[in-house]
């Protein structure tokens, strides 16, 4: 570790040593820090916005503590793709080896355009607030099955908010006189369903009660190609105004003292705006705070006794807002910190005259209990100044805690420190100064400095064509902003990359961020207590559960339990349940889509009269998006150029057999056949009977099991191991039983006599309503009773389970233009030119990779990120010129 805990007993202050009382507190803080190491996750993405059909590539970095050392704490991480309605549309489990992992999300042709969240966490991270998970908003457009752009506006009516939504093609042709079904979703619940129609200009008018704030409107309609399209639009009420908040430094304004007060001003979309905030006492101006482009500003005020402040915010458009002055205290403490000095951090503790005494007060700088500096003074005057050398402080968000003689915090304040020694130096050498199209680029990396004894490190690299990127990549989250800033702050941080772009003056602006954000801190109330974390460290996968006496809740103790892989029945593990019937198979590593059999027999007679109950992993709930200000209304409209470019590139890949064609409506030959009777209580979202194929109960009468009965009867569906696969792509289909999503291999467990009908949905005109769940097609099963769970035969003492396994990574496509063989593209229109997730520097700090440019000319952006074994962070950005 580069930063060691200070040997507190050797610290001298004011000529004396620390008392036994404060030493115990410092020891308790050290124990707390040791028992609660803070794990952080960061995902390096290949780019910043996507279209349907593309893949989100990422490299995961897990670090531990303020030193950002590679975490060997957790062996598993969870990554989720969450839509605007807070629904997890895709998730994966990735293995973490020495703090490193990788994965990818394939964005299906039917994904709904919109703003999505990428959320990543470990089970151990759940012991802290969800706000400290990795959470990033990305934009996803759809030009595969959608091809419709929306333009949304809103105005306030007498009773309702009136939304005008225009629907038109990518070329601007209105979708006129077109039926539209829409649903209003508020707080995750459907509150209204209606039908409407666009006018001759493609406009749809939706009136929404003003009581539904921040609601979503889900649209469903057919596009020009008669393919069903889903849209999810976030609706902001028009009456929302600018918001200005005041933040006294340290949380209090103290009378008869100079106080710093910060200002945060945002527009209705949550983005910072320039504002002037004027503090007046009578006719006199006591202070003025002017905010920057990110809406943050700060000023100082001298608060005289019994002063009455009038506070007013003036916006650039000339409008004004009256603000409420925070409470002013006659007695208490306040703090003023100067972290902008080149070498030191100064903190002035202000206290009212009645608190001046000879009692001890302690200045502690720490990271969640990991103390990096401490000093002591006596409350001998009403202003005390503490200081600490920046060289002894690690980089990141630290907490200044001032403790009284009872060792309780009287005032706290977060600070941000940035040390160049925590940044890993790198030298990049290219084989050329400029490149032609389809030219080979060789990148050689030299990591670290000559005095470094160890230069091992792990890195990832992404190269994108800047001419095809809409957003400014320098403002996006990066490894520095995530590990040093966002991972320890609450709330939304606008343009986090802005604070690490190397521009002078960011020290002052990041300090304003410290004044206006909540931060991660320790719970002083549990120091010295033996508090066991709720969530354990996951080193590997596990399958656990209970053995119970057949048909009863009473445990079956000491049962012999066996876990058998259905991929190889000779591959099994044995264990014995404990007194409570609990059993666990741990230290497992298995990929996704693996099915297991669990069998159990009692300890005495070896009989299987046992019920097996499996524990399921309860994922954390999806709360509000902390980065909601990054969500966009009309994503397709904003990224129409990217959609058109991707459509051209996809067409090239399809012609070369490197990508399947976009889902289209297949031709259907209509014959005069008798219409099959379908269950009226079918959960088919398109309506009962609206399917590519229907199998009725009469056709199932002679079959022993449902999977055997359906095998060979379903058009475009093949069965492999009892699982239905869509022949379009050979991908497993989603099975829906009475409205519930179930595992495909459970078909064999469904009692045929209980089935009323089976509906097959393969084409986009039926599957698109299911979003990502419908990307591979669906089989809709309706029971005769319509119950949520059907009667099925479950053998005694045996159970089939298919837990979520580890994600198996796809391979990034890399064209090679100097090879004599291989597939050659006639038009190379890649946006992500290269993705290299597995760069490793050797003991001499050397690493290298290469790639080929595309047909795109202009500037390319290469971003390399990663860490070395000492926790130094690398972020290197370089532009390439392609002519």
Biggest sheet record: 5 strands, mixed
CATH topology of the domain at 425-507 and 831-882: Immunoglobulin-like
Helical content class: under 10%
Q: Mean pLDDT, rounded to whole units? A: 88
Which regions are unreliable across 5 or more consecutive residues at pLDDT < 50?
1-17, 664-674, 786-793
Q: What is the 3D form?
A: globular
Q: Determine the number of helices (DSSP H or I, runs of at least 4 residues).
A: 7
Number of strands: 56
Structural class: mainly beta
What would CATH call the homologous superfamily of the domain at 425-507 and 831-882?
A: Macroglobulin (MG2) domain
How are strands sequenced across the largest beta sheet? 4-11-10-7-8
How much of the sequence lies in strands comes to 35-45%
Evaluate the radius of gyration: 31 Å
CATH architecture of the domain at 425-507 and 831-882: Sandwich
Separation, N- and C-terminal Cα atoms: 46 Å
Q: Please write the CATH class name of the domain at 425-507 and 831-882.
A: Mainly Beta
């Amino acid at each position: 570790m580069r930063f060691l805990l200070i040997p507190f007993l050797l610290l001298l202050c004011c000529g004396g040593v620390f008392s036994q009382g404060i030493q115990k507190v410092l020891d308790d803080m050290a124990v707390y820090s040791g028992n609660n190491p803070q794990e952080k996750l960061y995902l390096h993405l290949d780019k910043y916005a996507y279209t349907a059909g593309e893949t989100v590539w990422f490299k995961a970095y897990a670090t531990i503590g303020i030193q950002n050392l590679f975490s060997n704490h957790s062996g598993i991480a969870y990554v989720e793709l969450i839509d605007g309605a807070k629904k997890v549309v895709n998730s994966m489990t990735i293995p973490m080896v020495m703090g490193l992992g990788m994965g990818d999300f394939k964005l299906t042709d039917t994904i709904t355009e919109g703003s999505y969240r990428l959320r990543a966490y470990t089970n151990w991270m759940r012991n802290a607030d969800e706000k400290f998970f990795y959470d990033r908003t990305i934009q996803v457009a759809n030009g595969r099955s959608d091809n419709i752009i929306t333009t949304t506006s809103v105005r306030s009516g007498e009773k309702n908010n009136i939304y005008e939504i225009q629907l038109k093609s990518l070329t601007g042709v209105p979708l006129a006189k077109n039926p539209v079904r829409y649903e209003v979703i508020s707080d995750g619940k459907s509150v209204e369903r209606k039908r409407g129609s666009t006018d001759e200009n493609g406009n749809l008018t939706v009136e929404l009660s003003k009581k539904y704030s921040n609601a979503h409107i889900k649209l469903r309609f057919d596009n020009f190609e008669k393919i069903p399209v889903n849209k999810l639009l976030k609706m902001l009420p028009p009456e929302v105004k600018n918001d200005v908040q005041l933040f006294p430094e340290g949380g209090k304004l103290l009378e008869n003292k100079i106080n710093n007060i910060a200002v945060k001003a945002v527009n209705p979309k949550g983005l910072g705006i320039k504002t002037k905030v004027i503090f007046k006492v009578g006719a006199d101006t006591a202070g003025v705070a002017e905010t920057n482009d990110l809406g943050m500003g700060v000023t100082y005020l001298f608060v005289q006794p019994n002063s009455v402040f009038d506070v007013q915010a003036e916006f650039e458009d000339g409008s004004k807002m009256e603000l409420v002055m925070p409470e002013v205290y006659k007695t208490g403490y306040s703090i003023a910190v100067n972290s902008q000095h080149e070498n030191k951090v100064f903190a002035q503790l202000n206290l009212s005259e009645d608190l001046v005494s000879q009692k001890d007060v302690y200045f502690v700088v720490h990271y969640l209990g990991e103390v990096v500096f401490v000093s002591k003074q006596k409350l001998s005057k009403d202003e005390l100044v503490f200081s600490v050398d920046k060289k002894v402080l690690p980089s990141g968000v630290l907490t200044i805690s001032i403790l009284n003689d009872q060792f309780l915090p009287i005032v706290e304040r977060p600070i941000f420190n940035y040390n160049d020694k925590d940044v890993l130096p790198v030298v990049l050498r290219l084989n050329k100064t400029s490149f032609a199209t389809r030219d080979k680029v060789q990148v050689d990396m030299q990591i670290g400095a000559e005095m470094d004894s160890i230069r091992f490190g792990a890195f990832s690299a992404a190269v994108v064509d800047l001419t095809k990127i809409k957003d400014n990549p320098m403002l996006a989250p990066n490894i520095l902003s995530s590990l040093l800033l966002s991972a320890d702050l609450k709330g939304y941080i606008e343009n986090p990359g802005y604070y690490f772009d190397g521009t002078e003056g960011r020290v002052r602006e990041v300090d304003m961020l410290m004044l206006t954000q909540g931060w991660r801190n320790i719970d002083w109330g549990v120091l010295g207590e033996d508090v066991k974390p709720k969530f354990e460290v996951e080193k590997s996968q596990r399958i656990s559960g209970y053995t119970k006496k057949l048909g009863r809740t009473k445990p079956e103790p000491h049962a012999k339990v066996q876990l058998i892989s259905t991929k190889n029945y000779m591959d099994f593990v044995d264990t014995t349940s404990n007194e409570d019937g609990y059993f666990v198979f741990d230290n497992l590593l298995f990929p996704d889509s693996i099915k297991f059999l669990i069998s159990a027999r009692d300890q005495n007679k070896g009989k299987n009269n046992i019920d097996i109950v499996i524990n399921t992993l309860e994922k954390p709930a999806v709360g509000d998006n902390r980065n909601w200000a990054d969500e966009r209304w009309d994503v397709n409209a904003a990224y129409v150029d990217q959609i058109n470019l991707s459509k051209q590139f996809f067409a090239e890949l399809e012609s070369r057999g490197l990508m399947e064609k976009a889902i289209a409506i297949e031709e259907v030959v209509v014959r005069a056949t008798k219409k099959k009777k379908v269950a009226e209580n079918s959960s088919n979202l398109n309506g009962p009977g609206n399917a590519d194929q229907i199998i009725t109960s009469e056709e199932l009468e002679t079959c022993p099991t449902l999977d055997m009965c359906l095998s060979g009867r379903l058009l475009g569906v093949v069965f492999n191991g009892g699982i239905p696969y869509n022949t379009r792509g050979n991908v497993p289909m989603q099975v829906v039983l009475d409205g519930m999503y179930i595992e495909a291999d459970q078909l064999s467990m469904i009692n045929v006599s209980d089935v009323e009908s089976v509906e097959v949905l393969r084409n986009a005109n039926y599957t698109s309503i299911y979003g990502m769940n419908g990307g591979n097609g669906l089989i809709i099963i309706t029971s005769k009773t319509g119950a949520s769970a059907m009667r099925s035969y479950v053998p005694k003492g045996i159970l089939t389970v298919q837990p979520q396994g580890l994600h198996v990574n796809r391979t990034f496509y890399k064209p090679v233009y100097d090879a004599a063989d291989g597939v050659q593209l006639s038009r190379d229109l890649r946006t992500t030119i290269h993705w290299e997730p597995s760069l490793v520097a050797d003991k001499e700090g050397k690493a290298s990779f290469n790639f080929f440019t595309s047909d795109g000319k202009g500037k390319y952006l290469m971003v390399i990120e990663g860490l070395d074994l000492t926790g130094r962070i690398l972020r290197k950005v370089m532009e390439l010129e392609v002519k």
